[in-house]
Amino acid sequence: MSYSNNLHMIKRIAAELPAGQKLIVIYNPRTLAAAYDLRAFGVKTIPLKMSISFLIHRIPQVMSARLIFCDNYYALLAGLIRPRKKTRIIQLWHADGTIKCFGWEDPGQRRNHWLKRRRHQLVYDQFDDYVVASKAMGSVFERSFKQPATKMQYLGTPRSDRLFSDNWLQTVRQRVLMAAPELKGKRVILYAPTYRNAEQVNPPAGTIKALAANPNAVVAVKLYQEVNRDQLEMEQFKYPNVKIYDEFTTTDLMTLADTLVTDYSSFIFDFSLMPQARSAIFFMYDLKRYQKEPGVQTGLKKWLPTAPINTVADLKRAVIADEPVNFADFNDYWNTYNDGKAYKRVIDKYVIGRKNAAEDNDE
């Protein structure tokens, strides 16, 4: 577990696990809070550590498992020896779609040493199935990981199920508003750019000023936790209606956001499913460079819900205009099979073993 967005499914697996079987979650230490949540629910959790002790004691457990769910690329799978008829490895991935390229479609990966390239492909090949939410994302894995179409399972992604739950949305909103009452009753503009290297963490001059152009709106800035704050020019955030919210996750803030401003972040595929989502602005000021490396997905301008903008002046105009965006076609393309019940189809197919899981949409 590298991300904490599949907790609902994990708990349901624990509750529905056939007799005589047990569930173990091996987690990245950055998801410690999620691991504590699962532990309180009665799920055994083990931190993932690249140590001799971990390799000696835990890898044999992995090799003997009947079923392994992954939500990311795990290098340790490259050398995993397992009887394929007994052990199945399922990739759930951590995003419903993607704007930027990864895997073999990223020129940077193709420049890696041949041993690293070989290890990557060994990991990609270990997955028996890829659970996806759309034909579009299935095609991405076919190209990016060089996988056959037969491995793509169109069940929807369990991580998206919570976005269809009014109870979950309301609970998160209440929690956020208790800690950030300044967001209540305001137009919330969430600025969530994709991760960038240290020399690129600061957006073009005037970006934050443009975002703050509507004095009646609150601009919530959410940066990746890996961003070195020492590299940030803090003076750019001086506006009274702008604040960096490190205490919340991007998903937390999205539940209250009216407008999402991003560039190439995959959070747009979640935001577009939220009932209060009014608009999205794609501030792709470096699109020409980004198209070269790491690259962007084919047909970007055809399937984006609104055209990307490239200048600070256009960004300011878009913020002030506050034009609503229709996400219907975008969701049909990328969130085709997401309906709030993906967890049930995944559990039916892999944990319980029902063969018609993909066709069963009943609760």
UniProtKB/TrEMBL annotation:
<protein>
    <submittedName>
        <fullName>CDP-glycerol glycerophosphotransferase family protein</fullName>
    </submittedName>
</protein>
<dbReference type="InterPro" id="IPR051612">
    <property type="entry name" value="Teichoic_Acid_Biosynth"/>
</dbReference>
<dbReference type="Pfam" id="PF04464">
    <property type="entry name" value="Glyphos_transf"/>
</dbReference>
<keyword id="KW-0777">Teichoic acid biosynthesis</keyword>
<keyword id="KW-1003">Cell membrane</keyword>
<keyword id="KW-0472">Membrane</keyword>
<dbReference type="InterPro" id="IPR043149">
    <property type="entry name" value="TagF_N"/>
</dbReference>
<comment type="similarity">
    <text>Belongs to the CDP-glycerol glycerophosphotransferase family.</text>
</comment>
<keyword id="KW-0808">Transferase</keyword>
<dbReference type="InterPro" id="IPR043148">
    <property type="entry name" value="TagF_C"/>
</dbReference>
<dbReference type="InterPro" id="IPR007554">
    <property type="entry name" value="Glycerophosphate_synth"/>
</dbReference>
